[in-house]
Design goal:
six-stranded antiparallel β-sheet; Pilin-like; alpha+beta; five-stranded antiparallel β-sheet; single chain; about 25% strand; about 25% helix
């Protein structure tokens, strides 16, 4: 009896990758790229977002310090024509207070020192010109954390770099800071 079935040879596949392995590699590369792109050299958006977070935290620090020490309120003084700010006591706005962590003067100049990565960022604090001392805008807080200004409108403080900006809004009643999104102009 003869075998009438067609002869089929088993095909052996050489070395290679399965479809699953290729999909895993492509997915991994896509995830790494998505994480790495924002970290590549300080982009204007990342510098602006970082500056907004730093300023918001420092404003909040001044607000809380003013609540806890109502007899010696802390103010935010915008200095160097929008290139920075410092935290000081209300009775001596020329002298920055000591930073609570390293005890150095609580002064931030964008692009200098610990804020050197924030190069090019400027602050538009013209909305608080009504409470200036020696020509420098000063943000003051009351004993309950409210901002001290003539009216009860939210106080905008705008940070800019290149053709981008972000606005921080200080609530007049609570003194809390809301950070907006980066806008391209």
């Amino acid at each position: 009896m003869t075998d009438t079935r067609p002869h089929t040879r088993l095909r052996t596949v050489g070395p290679g990758y399965t479809m699953i392995e290729l999909i895993m590699v492509v997915t991994t590369v896509a995830i790494v790229a998505a994480l790495a792109v924002p970290m590549l050299g300080g982009t204007a958006n990342s510098r602006l977002a970082a500056a907004a977070r730093v300023l918001a935290a420092d404003i909040d620090h001044a607000r809380v310090a003013s609540i806890t020490r109502a007899d010696q309120p802390t103010v935010v003084v915008f200095i160097d024509e929008g290139k920075g700010y410092q935290l000081a006591y209300a009775h001596d706005t020329d002298e920055p207070i000591g930073h609570p962590i390293d005890h150095r003067p609580y002064k931030v100049r964008f692009g200098v020192g610990q804020a050197k990565h924030l190069v090019g960022v400027t602050v538009d604090s013209s909305a608080i010109e009504s409470s200036t001392i020696d020509g420098e805008p000063v943000l003051r807080f009351g004993r309950f954390g409210q901002i001290q200004q003539a009216d009860d409108t939210p106080l905008p403080i705008t940070l800019s770099v290149d053709n981008r900006s972000v606005t921080l809004t200080v609530d007049p009643t609570s003194g809390e800071v809301a950070v907006g999104t980066v806008q391209v102009h």
